[in-house]
Design brief:
Helix content: under 10%
Oligomer: single chain
CATH class of the largest domain: Mainly Beta
CATH superfamily of the largest domain: Glucose Permease (Domain IIA)
Shape: globular
CATH architecture of the largest domain: Distorted Sandwich
Number of helices: 3
Radius of gyration: 23 Å
Largest sheet: 9 strands, antiparallel
Length: 500
């Protein structure tokens, strides 16, 4: 295998008066491209490929089948299943959608994207010319070199809404035929409070419209006022979008360490008006084109290594349906460090409950629902997540129902008698107000965000503070209803510890 060499520009030391006297001097990142641990192959159905893994072992991979399932409303791909063999051993994988690599025949393997996403999406996102993209690692290998990636925001995993990898985005006013399949990772958070940090040691390639000249052509860089691009020693570009502010020490040509603060999370640029970080990795793909290097598994490994959670609930895939149809809610991607989850308990918006890692139920009324999943392991640890169910009105099949986004800060180390900030913004509904239930028996709190405000309006979110008097796990709910009774609901899980 030929080793590609990437030569970074030699960085000169800039004068103290141009950067600020306290700013670190730039350093050279690396002269050679570090080979990633992942190996990527694009195949058509029926194709076979011999592949050399990062440990030198060779495996034979064959794509046997591809099955894509679309919804009847938008014809969006909601699930893509591939059947492959590795050295003759068969396995079926689901593409993207919060799925992690699985083990078979001495390897870890996943499928990051399939061809159906090109048909009514944006093919340039992925650079995929064949039927499916597979990624492989040795069975016991980390997904990335240890310590080379950290979580890019200073907040708890799944603290609020996410849109990850190839999940279709359902938002706006009118339902459009072109689908925005999310090619990166949208990590929701509290506007102007959550720190965005460099996930890797990297060269700063662009800040806003200021781009290093040698990275303007034949790169994935798409400069914008709210965007920063970093380049790491793997030759991967990292996009950080919708930043409310960018630190003035982040300058093109600087080399920064992982953990360096880039700025504050916001809703600028093409954010849709909700506060989040769009984090995306771009790399050369087998087609020779630049395309997204699906990042969910990498961030999950980084978060686990950094924060060492014991138990994580996961029911993240959103459901999208018409009133009168069924939704299947899945909590099977929840995780325990000891692989010892013993209970999956669901509580639904109508007050009913169910048990099991996966449940199916009917939705007869339009609205945006947030259903509670509680998982418990054998040690008694508990974790919560919320299934978002988007139910359209059959009388208005081309219109979205109202939506809502809620966030809080801080998400770590909350204590009794310490104030927590809660923010909420509604979309597609100018009626009524948002009503908070903080889950501790305190009186309901009513606020009103401006649903008609410009999406970038600084006062777009309504803000309130709340203080908990007792330690515990609190399930927070916020709702806003339209005059016809259609309601949008969001939920948050807040963990509060004692003062000690």
């Amino acid at each position: 295998m030929t080793k590609t060499i990437l030569v970074f520009p030699i960085l000169c030391c800039l004068a103290a008066d141009s950067l600020g006297a306290a700013e670190p001097r730039p350093q050279k990142l690396s002269a050679a491209l570090q080979q990633p641990l992942v190996r990527v192959v694009d195949l058509n159905v029926g194709d076979t490929k011999q592949l050399e893994l990062c440990n030198g072992e060779r495996v034979e991979v064959k794509l046997l089948k591809l099955r894509e399932t679309r919804d009847r409303i938008r014809q969006a791909v909601r699930s893509a299943m591939v059947t492959v063999t590795v050295d003759g051993e068969e396995i079926t994988l689901e593409s993207g959608m919060y799925n992690l690599p699985r083990r078979v025949a001495g390897v870890q393997i996943d499928c990051s994207i399939t061809k159906g996403y090109n048909s009514n999406g944006t093919p340039s996102f992925w650079g995929l010319d064949k039927d499916a993209r597979l990624r492989l690692w040795p069975a016991d290998s980390p997904l990335l070199s240890p310590g080379s990636l950290i979580y890019p925001v200073d907040q708890r995993w799944f603290a609020t809404r996410t849109w990850f990898d190839n999940e279709p985005v359902d938002g706006g006013t009118k339902i459009l035929p072109k689908i925005y399949y999310h090619s990166g990772l949208d990590i929701g958070g509290s506007e102007r409070q959550v720190k965005v940090i460099a996930a890797t040691d990297a060269l700063v390639v662009s800040v806003g419209d200021d781009v290093l000249e040698e990275h303007r052509r034949d790169t994935p860089v798409e400069a914008r006022y709210d965007v920063v691009y970093l380049l790491d020693a793997r030759g991967w570009y990292y996009r950080y979008s919708h930043l409310d502010t960018i630190n003035n020490t982040i300058r093109p040509g600087r080399v920064i360490d992982r953990g360096t603060e880039i700025g504050l999370l916001g809703k600028k640029g093409a954010s849709g008006g909700w506060s989040h970080l769009h984090f995306e990795i771009k790399s050369r793909q087998p087609s020779g084109k630049w395309g997204t290097q699906a990042g969910y598994a990498f961030l999950w490994q980084a978060y686990r290594n950094q924060y060492k959670p014991q138990l994580v609930a996961n029911t993240r895939r959103k459901s999208f349906l018409m009133a009168g149809e069924d939704a299947t809610l899945d909590g099977s991607k929840s995780w325990s460090v000891t692989d010892s989850i013993r209970n999956y308990e669901w509580t639904f918006s109508d007050g009913t409950t169910a048990l099991g890692s996966s449940v199916t139920r009917s939705y007869n009324q339009p609205g945006l629902f947030s259903e509670i999943l509680k998982v418990t392991d054998t040690a008694g640890n508990v974790a919560f997540d919320f299934a978002e169910v988007h139910v359209l009105d059959p009388k208005k099949p081309d219109e979205y129902v109202p939506r809502i986004h809620a966030a809080y800060w801080p998400t770590f180390n909350n204590k009794v008698n310490e104030s927590i900030t809660f923010k909420v913004r509604s979309f597609g509904n100018e009626d009524g107000s948002e009503v908070w239930d903080f889950g501790d028996g305190s009186p309901l709190v009513t606020v009103k965000s401006n649903a008609s405000a410009d999406r970038h309006a600084k006062d777009g979110y309504a803000i309130t503070d709340h203080t908990y008097q007792q330690p515990g796990d609190y399930l927070v709910r916020v709702q806003r209803s339209r005059k016809d009774g259609v309601t949008a609901t969001a939920r948050l899980h807040v963990r509060v510890a004692d003062e000690q």
